[in-house]
Design brief:
heterodimer; A: alpha+beta; Cytochrome Bc1 Complex, Chain D, domain 2; 5-stranded mixed beta sheet; 8 helices; 17% strand; disordered N terminus; B: mainly alpha; Cytochrome C Oxidase, Chain A; two-stranded antiparallel ribbon; 17 helices
């Protein structure tokens, strides 16, 4: 269990903000505070006047007011025009801050982001795809983002950045992380894995331990454009590595099947590549059919016809998911063509076979 | 000469309404209401309708807050249910409650009476508006009973073109409600343009009429765009015409432009009438001339027009070009000035007034506090770099609830209490009315102040579940919501109680000088037995309190009605250039 608020992601002692962890966040925070002071500058006198007048000028019914002044043009022009200067100030400050966030500098790292209902895949090139966003500290990074279904929005509170991801176009954003993520000790990580295996069927719950399965502390990454049922579950994490070697080691670790069996690797792909958000392992119906007992069973298709779930059906469903839809489901799965290697697909098939024994 | 005669003859006390003339009772039976053309009865039917919608939307709000008591969701088994609940809460509150609340319910009752007229310009169109509202509401109920609705009240594509829920039913409902809104606006524009009585020039209109007029302009100009948008959405969903859905070469951002081109001005459809109410309430209960009449009147029109140019600020993160985004940010700040002017003017009206802290006045003072917070927090969102952080977080939720609920809903309640004696003919319990205001005020702030902090700390909106670090603020907000619910319940009970046990209302219980206080409470079905005499709507000189009648009367020697009749009317009515 969570033993204290200091363990919670992005928790800080600051009242208004989460941790400040990108080159933009101080600028955003200082502009926010400037606007806040301007608001207090207006709000306090207004509230005092409101309360004071309401009590000071309370009179018995029928007593005439002390004054019937109906207007004072110079005063009214003054309070219409003078606040405008403050508005121009904060507008310019906000617009400049906004322009800073446009156009990534040359030499930025690049990560291709794909958002889907309800998960993320980050493409690090060379076929390395993982739901977590891993970055190098002090290195500008550009995200090229696309969506395979509806509008999503990528929000990293600790970086103070947000951008919608609109299907049918590529939206870009960039930032420079300034705080490297801590790494927990090996013993702590082992204890967490042991707990996960004993109490959670081997599924690593990073919210529970507040570090990733590789032992890194993280920043939250949220979807902030409503996208349906599990919108609130469409979260992943951002890990900032101290050195390029550390980042490359992490990427290498996920660059394909190493010494696992295909079925073991298929299970990892199931967790990492978004299968889990729509296909259950316990027979329950989600957006798509469950994987439990799926392999080898007979399925009826939407629009008539039926067939056996075999190797070629699974392969077709991954690459051209809309060609044969199981009756009772909607054609909503995006194609994974070009995103999964032959070995990946074989691993997934091997994993599915283990679910039907 | 005219000033003098006007000043005294308006003191005429209308006395009590003859039992047979009371608009509530002069005819009876269901059909006498269902087919009525009387603007007051239509207003009352709207009032019942919007309050029912408010009650339903309010229960859904409590459902939302109840669910969010726990990070994993305390109430609903599935996230789908939560999504449907917040969608319906938003859609019902926006389309069925806030938009028609003040203009259609209070406006229908007040506009003709404030003009000294017998009815609106097109009474049949008025009744049509009401039935369109009912039909639109039935479509929403249909969507609710059918497969529900889970798109959010904004119906963003392509989610809305692909979800399995009743999008078509709900958008048809909103489409029909749009026509109800357009017809009401049209009716008021014509009524105010053509039916002002002799002597009531534009700048002698009560400010509520200025606000209603500005609102009507937006209703007539903006609502058709919503109609077009929703029809295109239906066409996209059924025929795949390829305008909003990228699968058919459409562009989802186009939908957002279309939608906010209506829905941003619609924000002013919601708040402008509230400004009108507050101008009346502050002035009448301070018994002091409204300060800066012209600035308030012009600022309503300015808001109505500038409101058409700022829709892009709902889309700062959607990937518009930098230049467009910056221009929209600059335009957004221009709208804040007219709203600020009003707040300053209302404060100046209180200064050196003779303030009665009646229930309506308590609500008006609450409004000033809450709306100022709502308006000022809008500045954060207009500032581009800060908006990138705050967009689509709870900060937005808190901001618009301060404006829409702390602003419009509180003003609506204040107005309802203010005109309740006129509408129902009964006085309510003052103490319990004040208690309701206090509880609403406390509950409201407790609900929505924590949400500003939630938002700036990064809590996204429309989340059925959330990370545990946000739990405390969410729970605080939920407790506040239940207090708020209790406050509103008290307010409702106070009004219900008055209908059965309230003392009979005098014609002028607060000391107003606009024309509705010159007819009886409640008014006869024909409103005025003789044309009321028009003066400055905020000239409170000579008004005194009669303890015996619990009524405000003019202390000047009062002319007999017959004498008043002999005052020579001006030869030309105001709209033909007379009495400029």
């Amino acid at each position: 269990m969570i033993s204290g608020p200091h363990l919670i992601g992005d928790y800080t002692n600051r009242f208004w903000f989460p941790e400040s962890a990108s080159s933009f966040s101080d600028q955003v925070d200082s502009t926010f505070m400037l606007v806040l002071y301007i608001c207090i500058f207006f709000m306090v006198p207004i509230t005092i006047a409101l309360a004071y007048f309401s009590i000071r000028y309370m009179k018995k019914k029928g007593e005439p007011a002390e004054s019937q002044t109906s207007h004072n043009t110079p005063l009214e022009i003054a309070w219409s025009v003078l606040p405008s200067f403050l508005l121009v100030w904060i507008f310019v400050k906000g617009a400049l801050g906004y322009l800073d966030q446009q156009g990534a500098p040359d030499g930025s790292d690049a990560v291709a982001v794909k958002a889907f209902k309800w998960g993320w895949t980050m493409d690090y090139g060379n076929g390395v795809i993982h739901p977590e966003l891993h970055l190098l500290n002090e290195q500008p990074t550009k995200l090229t983002m696309r969506s395979s279904d509806v509008i999503h929005s990528l929000f990293i509170p600790a970086f103070r950045v947000k951008r919608d991801i609109v299907p049918g176009r590529y939206n870009e954003m960039w930032f420079k992380p300034t705080v490297a993520s801590e790494r927990v000790s090996e013993s702590e990580l082992e204890a967490a894995w042991k707990d996960a295996k004993e109490n959670n069927g081997g599924v690593f719950d990073r919210e529970k331990y507040q570090f990733t399965e590789d032992g890194y502390r993280f920043h939250d990454l949220y979807c902030t454009e409503y996208c349906g049922k599990d919108h609130s579950m469409m979260q992943t994490v951002v890990v900032v590595h101290e050195t390029r070697e550390d980042l490359n080691d992490w990427i290498k670790k996920y660059s394909g099947r190493t010494d696992q069996s295909p079925a073991e690797y298929g299970k990892l792909l199931y967790e990492r590549r978004g299968c889990a958000s729509c296909h259950s392992l316990d027979g329950s119906k989600r957006v798509g059919p469950s994987f439990a007992g799926g392999f080898g069973s007979e399925r009826e298709y939407v629009g008539g016809g039926k067939g056996i779930v075999d190797e070629s059906y699974i392969r077709e469903s991954i690459l051209e998911p809309k060609s044969k839809i199981v009756a009772g489901y909607s054609p909503v799965m995006p194609s994974y063509k070009g995103q999964l290697s032959d070995d990946d697909i074989e691993s997934i098939i091997a994993y599915l076979k283990t679910m039907s024994k | 000469m005219a000033e003098h005669a006007v000043g005294r003859s308006r003191g005429f006390n209308p006395g009590k309404v003859a039992e047979g003339d009371n608009y509530l009772k002069h005819s009876s039976g269901l059909l006498s209401w269902a087919f009525t053309l009387d603007h007051k009865r239509i207003g009352v039917m709207y009032l019942v309708g919007v309050l029912t919608a408010f009650f339903g939307g309010g229960l859904l709000a409590l459902g939302i807050r109840g669910h969010l008591m726990s990070p994993t969701g305390a109430l609903f088994a599935s996230n789908d249910t939560y999504n449907q609940v917040f969608t319906l809460h938003g859609a019902i509150m926006v389309f069925l409650f806030i938009i028609p609340s003040i203009p259609a319910a209070l406006g229908n009752f007040l506009v003709p009476v404030m003009l000294g007229a017998k009815d609106v310009a097109f009474p049949r169109l008025n009744l049509t508006s009401f039935y369109l509202w009912v039909i639109g509401a039935l479509f929403f109920v249909g969507a609710l009973l059918g497969t529900g609705l889970d798109t959010g009240w904004t119906f963003y594509t392509p989610y809305s073109t692909t979800t399995q829920t009743s999008v078509i039913l709900a958008t048809m409902g909103a489409f029909i409600l749009g026509f109800s809104s357009i017809f009401t606006g049209l009716n008021f524009i014509v009524t105010i343009n053509t039916m002002r009585p002799p002597g009531m020039t534009w700048f002698k209109m009560p400010l509520f009429l200025w606000a209603t007029y500005s609102t009507s302009i937006i209703q007539v100009l903006a609502t058709p765009v919503l109609g077009i948008t929703l029809l295109l959405l239906i066409a996209e969903r059924t025929l795949h015409i390829g305008i909003f859905d990228p699968e058919y070469n459409g562009d989802p951002v186009t939908y957002q432009h279309f939608f906010w081109f209506y829905s941003h001005p619609a924000v002013y459809i919601m708040i402008l009438p509230a400004f009108g109410i507050i101008s009346e309430l502050i002035s009448v209960h301070s018994h002091k001339h409204i300060f800066g009449y012209r600035f308030i009147a012009y600022s309503s029109v300015a808001i109505a027009l500038l409101g058409f140019l700022v829709w892009g600020h709902h889309m700062f993160t959607s990937g518009m070009s930098s230049l467009t985004t910056i221009i929209f940010s600059a335009l957004t700040f221009t709208v804040s000035i007219p709203s600020a002017i009003k707040v300053f003017n209302w404060l100046a009206t209180l200064y050196k007034g003779s303030i009665s802290l009646t229930t309506p006045m308590c609500y008006a003072i609450s409004f000033l506090f809450l709306f100022t917070i709502g308006g000022l927090t809008g500045l954060f969102l207009g500032v581009l770099s800060v908006d990138l952080h705050l967009h689509d977080t709870y900060f937005i939720v808190a901001h618009f609830h301060y404006v829409m609920m702390g602003g419009t809903m509180v003003a609506f309640l204040g107005g309802l209490f203010h005109w309740w004696p006129k509408i129902s003919g009964k006085m309510f319990n003052e103490l319990w009315g004040q208690v309701s205001c206090l509880v609403v005020f406390i509950g409201f702030n407790m609900t929505f102040l924590p949400q500003f902090v939630l938002g700036s700390r990064g809590m996204p909106r429309r989340y059925a579940t959330y990370d545990p670090e946000f739990a405390f603020l969410h729970q605080l907000s939920s407790v506040g919501a239940f207090i708020l619910g209790i406050g509103l319940l008290i307010a409702g009970l106070v009004l219900l109680h008055s209908m059965f046990n309230g003392r009979l209302a005098p014609p002028n219980p607060w000391g107003g000088v606009t024309l509705e206080w010159q007819c009886t409470s409640p008014p006869p079905f024909y409103n005025f037995s003789r044309p009321p005499v028009v003066g400055d709507p905020y000239d409170f000189t000579g008004l005194g309190w009669s303890e015996q009648d619990q009524n405000y009367v003019f202390l000047d020697p009062i002319q007999s009605p017959d004498e008043a009749q002999t005052t020579k009317p001006v030869s030309q009515p105001a709209h033909a250039g007379g009495q400029g």
